[in-house]
């Protein structure tokens, strides 16, 4: 008859693989307890980002309860309230899906709006830049024309004034 305890000859040493197969790292042993394990725990080496994700994933798995509502036993038959429970669960699921669809549509419309807005702003900026360049060219031409007229006018005035002034070397009026 078996006592439930393994005999010394039944014990086996098991070597764990070097790489962890599961998505989660193994849990460390409880602190302060003397370990009698044949294989000691070694913490997996992760990058800082991966470590944060692993910690978050473990916290979610441990803290989020798995909720099963309105379950029936294996021997339970269909009762008079089961149809109403079914309708209630179906209505809740339909409402959840409708909210998800509405949220998706809202996000999609917002993304499309922002994309169209960016395109309109870019097009308006291009038009503004083109018109600004045209105004600057017109202003430059006007300025050049004014400078040209002033330069031509000054030369003409100098010619007339040199005839009227007389001899500039002696300071006497020129004889005519």
Task: Walk me through the structure.
With 176 residues, the chain is mainly α. It has a domain at 81-149. Helices cover 57% and strands 0% of the residues. The chain contains 2 helices and no strands. The chain has helices spanning 48-63, 82-165. The chain is elongated and about 125 Å long. The protein starts with 47 loop residues before the first helix and ends in an 11-residue tail after the last helix. The mean pLDDT is 75.
Average pLDDT: 75
Radius of gyration: 46 Å
User: Helix count, per DSSP?
Assistant: 2
Order of helices and strands: HH
Key features?
176 residues, mainly alpha, 57% helix, 2 helices
Task: Kindly summarize this structure in a few lines.
The chain contains 2 helices and no strands. By secondary structure, the protein is mainly alpha-helical.
Write the SSE topology.
Blueprint: H1 48-63, H2 82-165
């Amino acid at each position: 008859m078996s006592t439930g305890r393994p005999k010394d000859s039944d014990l086996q040493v098991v070597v764990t693989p070097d790489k962890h197969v599961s998505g989660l790292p193994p849990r460390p042993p409880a602190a302060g307890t003397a370990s009698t394990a044949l294989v000691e725990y070694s913490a997996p080496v992760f990058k800082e980002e991966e470590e944060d994700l692993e910690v978050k994933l473990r916290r979610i798995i441990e803290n989020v309860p798995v909720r099963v509502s309105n379950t029936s036993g294996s021997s339970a038959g269909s009762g008079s309230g089961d149809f109403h429970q079914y309708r209630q669960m179906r209505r809740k699921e339909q409402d959840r899906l409708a909210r998800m669809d509405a949220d998706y549509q809202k996000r999609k419309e917002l993304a499309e709006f922002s994309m169209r807005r960016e395109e309109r702003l870019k097009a308006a900026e291009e038009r503004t830049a083109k018109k600004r360049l045209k105004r600057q060219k017109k202003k430059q031409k006007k300025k050049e024309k004014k400078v040209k007229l002033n330069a031509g006018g000054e030369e003409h005035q100098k010619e007339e004034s040199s005839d009227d002034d007389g001899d500039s070397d002696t300071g006497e009026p020129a004889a005519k």
